[in-house]
Write a structure and sequence with these properties.
Helix content: 55-70%
Shape: elongated
Keywords: Cell inner membrane, Cell membrane, Cell shape, Cell wall biogenesis/degradation, Glycosyltransferase, Membrane, Peptidoglycan synthesis, Transferase, Transmembrane, Transmembrane helix
Pfam family, one: Transgly
CATH architecture of the largest domain: Orthogonal Bundle
Pathway: Cell wall biogenesis; peptidoglycan biosynthesis
CATH superfamily of the largest domain: Biosynthetic peptidoglycan transglycosylase-like
Strand order of the largest sheet: 1-2
Number of domains: 2
Number of helices: 12
Family: Belongs to the glycosyltransferase 51 family.
Subcellular location: Cell membrane
CATH topology of the largest domain: Penicillin binding protein transpeptidase fold
Largest sheet: 2 strands, antiparallel
Structural class: mainly alpha
Amino acid sequence: MRSHLMPIKRNKKRATQRKIKKRSFFQRFFIRLMTIFSGLVTLSILLVLGLRWIPPPTTAFLIQDLYQQGKSAESIHSVKVEWSDWADISPHIFVAVIVSEDQRFFQHHGFDVDEIQKAWAEYQGGKRLRGASTITQQLAKNLFLWSGRSVVRKGLEAYFTIIIELLWPKNRILEIYVNIIQYGQGVYGVTAASEHFFHKPPSQVTPREAALLAAVLPNPLRFRIDKPSPYVKQRQEWIIRQMNVGGGIKLLERGLSEKR
């Protein structure tokens, strides 16, 4: 009788050991996964925090553009985004960007819910689904991510948008945004754009020139500053009117003072 029971007990013991090993494997895997995840989160937060004071050396969109042009890895690493500090940029540029890209920039915390709802209502009404991205969302995409549409990219965009809004003041968001976005083929940053198209530093850009810079932002590869189409000219005039209605520089000063 005893000889028959011993194999059964041993089999049960082995099965229990296998279950423990299996459970232990998944526990170790989960711990390692969470360690990697927390490390990536910490790294991304530190990266964004550092850029609050340090100009970005390059951007994800700029690197992607260089690769698409067939540039070598060495040339990519040597590229620097041309930078101008806040005080060296005409305030008209900031105002033009706000009124053309994100008029509730100082009211929201990274996501314009009203604009999202409006875009969705238009889509349900039969219109093409348009973007409702804020300046902060566009900054997060251009600085850290890649072009194209996917759930993963939109999720990461939302993640970086939240971190940026938590760690940066509004003026820093504007400062980096105008310094990294593309204004034309191979023209990145407001310094390069003002010197290339207007032959002057960004501090001397006029309201009309600032409006023209902002007019091409929806698609700087299709719309041109040096040869503006009738649509770009029409959009430029609309931006100028919006700048005047909003009070121009006073709009900027009021928004910044309210956020301090």
